[in-house]
Design brief:
The chain contains 6 helices and 5 strands, in the order H-E-H-E-H-E-H-H-H-E-E. By secondary structure, it is an alpha/beta fold.
């Protein structure tokens, strides 16, 4: 069963999103499966009217660098996976900060902030979407349009990439 909280940040922009490259930010419970993450990302892309071919990068908190499901999902899609430090994530203005994210990840946002950082500061096209997968794990996804067409400049992170 999926629980979806839809927040579109820019409806008109989301309808045009397929013309742009996007970064996807993901937050997830420990032990989230690749299947749960895949369904959450697929659903968020659908909410935004964005094709998977527009995704150029996926990103999360450095606290998720050891998440097998996240790594498996990104590798299966062929998308680079970047991780950002809590201090980097916390420096990003987002419309939906979360006390739960602050408690667990050290930043008031994971998905929205990671999406914006991965997109070199680009605007959110799809705000935070909350899901619960068949495995009972929660996955949060947000999508931002890359602010540049030069993909070599996005993202920049001291936390590394996979």
């Amino acid at each position: 069963m999926w629980i979806l909280t839809a927040t579109k940040c820019a409806t008109a922009a989301a309808n045009e999103a397929a013309r742009f490259a996007v970064g996807v930010g993901v937050g997830c419970d420990r032990g989230s499966s690749a299947a749960s993450i895949a369904l959450a990302v697929e659903t968020a892309l659908t909410v935004g009217g964005i094709g998977a071919d527009a995704v150029s990068v996926i990103a999360s908190s450095e606290h998720k660098a050891d998440e097998a499901g996240l790594r498996e999902f990104a590798a299966g899609q062929g998308w680079p996976l970047h991780f950002f430090a809590a201090s980097e994530l916390d420096g990003v203005t987002v419309p939906n900060p979360s006390p739960q994210a602050l408690q667990h990840a050290g930043s008031a946002s994971v998905a929205e902030a990671a999406a914006r950082l991965a997109a070199a500061g680009g605007d959110l096209l799809v705000g935070k979407q909350k899901f619960r997968g068949a495995d009972g794990k929660h996955v949060t996804v947000a999508i931002a349009r890359l602010s540049t067409t030069d993909l070599t400049t996005a993202p920049s992170s001291t936390s590394g990439a996979v």
